[in-house]
Amino acid sequence: MAKQENSMLNPELLIELANNKMPYGKYQGWTLYKLPEPYLAWYKQKGFPAGKMGILLATLYEIKVNGLEYLLHPLVKK
Predict the structure, then answer these.
(1) Sequence-distant (≥ 6) Cβ neighbours of residue 38 within 8 angstroms
(2) What is the pLDDT of residues 49-61, one digit of tens each?
(3) What pLDDT, in 10s, does the model give residues 21-36?
(4) Cβ atoms of residues 59 and 17 within 8 Å
(5) Which residues contact 56 (CB under 8 A, 6 or more apart)?
(6) Entry's Pfam families (predicted)?
(7) Number of CB atoms found within 10 A of residue 15's CB
(8) Rounded to whole angstroms, how far apart are CA atoms 3 and 19?
(9) d(Cα 78, Cα 75) in Å, to the nearest integer?
(10) Which of 55, 57, 40 has the alpha carbon at shortest distance from 3?
């Protein structure tokens, strides 16, 4: 778990959340930071996927439930 917690503090993850797209599922093609909070809460309950996508979604969940989405807005590439 310590490795995942350290990964969640990586500033590059924030850039990825602001610009990468969801690769699969109901919200395929959506920019990650735009995913709705209920969808992320569903993943939290079900279990985030393994690997990098799981880390990204778990990080985004924490950002959203703590009202910190504004931190991602300046990182969006125009």
Answers:
(1) none
(2) 999 999 999 999 9
(3) 999 999 999 999 999 9
(4) yes
(5) 13, 16, 17, 20, 32
(6) QSregVF_b
(7) 14
(8) 23
(9) 9
(10) 55
Using alpha carbons, select from 67, 68, 57, 46 the residue that is nearest to residue 20. 57
The CA-based dihedral angle spanning residues 1, 34, 23, 46, taken in that order and rounded to the nearest 10 degrees:
50
User: Tokens for 77?
Assistant: 């590439």
Whole-number Å distance between alpha carbons of 35 and 28: 10
CA distance 59 to 26: 19
Q: Which two tokens stand for residue 43?
A: 């993943």
pTM of the model: 0.85
Ramachandran region, residue 6 (left: φ > 0; alpha: ψ -120 to 50; beta: rest): alpha
Looking at this protein, which amino acid is placed at residue 7? S
Alpha carbon distance 19, 46 (integer Å): 25
Tokens of 9: 């503090």
